[in-house]
Amino acid sequence: MWGKGRGDRILEAARGGDPEVAAWVAARRAEGVLDEDIRWMWNQSDAAMKKTDEMSMTVKATLYLWSKDETGDEQKAIDFANRNWPFYGDPAKPEGIHQGEDRPLFPELHHRIDSWSARQGWGTAKPRMEAAMAGHATMNSLIRAEMRAGRL
C-alpha cells in the first residue's frame, strides 16, 4: 500500500493529522523510536526487512547453539539466548519473560541497536558485555536503560 519511501510517507501522514497513523507513530516515539528509525525500517524493501529479521533470528539461534554446546543443557541455552539478544515485537503485547523493562522492543529500533551493539565490541569482549548486563534480566532492559541515559 505505501510502496517505496513509505517511511517518509508514514511520517508525513502522522504530521498531516491522520489519527490512526499519528497514534501508531506516537506509540513508537513513547518507546524511544526516532523518525530516523522509522525511515530506516520502512524505507527498505520488504525483502530487506525480511532479511534483517532472518539475520537477527540467525544470531539468536547461534547464541542458543553455542550455549547448548558449552553447557549441554537445553533450558540454559534457551535462557542464555533470550537474555542476551534483543526481543522485538509490540511492547504493548508482552509475552513470556518479556514483561516490564524486558518487554519487546519495536523493530524500528533494530538498526540503531545493532550499531550500538557493534560499537560496544562485545563480540570480542565478553567480560564487558557481562558487566553491562549486570542488574538487567534481559538485553531489552539494558537497551531501555541505555536509551534513557542517552547512549543509544
Structure description:
The chain has 152 residues and is mainly α. 63% of the residues lie in helices and 0% in strands. It folds into 2 domains: 1-43, no CATH class; 46-148, no CATH class. The chain is built from 8 helices and no strands. The radius of gyration is 17 Å and the shape is elongated.
Which terms summarize this structure?
152 residues; mainly alpha; 8 helices; elongated
The pLDDT mean sits at 90
SSE-based structural type: mainly alpha
What distance separates the N and C termini?
Answer: 32 Å
The gross shape turns out to be elongated
Considering DSSP H and I runs of 4 or more, what fraction of the residues is helical? 55-70%
List segments where confidence is low: pLDDT < 50 over at least 5 consecutive residues.
Answer: none
- How would a crystallographer describe the biggest sheet? none
Number of helical segments? Answer: 8
Question: How much of the polypeptide forms β-strand, as a percent range?
Answer: under 5%
Number of strands: 0
Domain module tally: 2
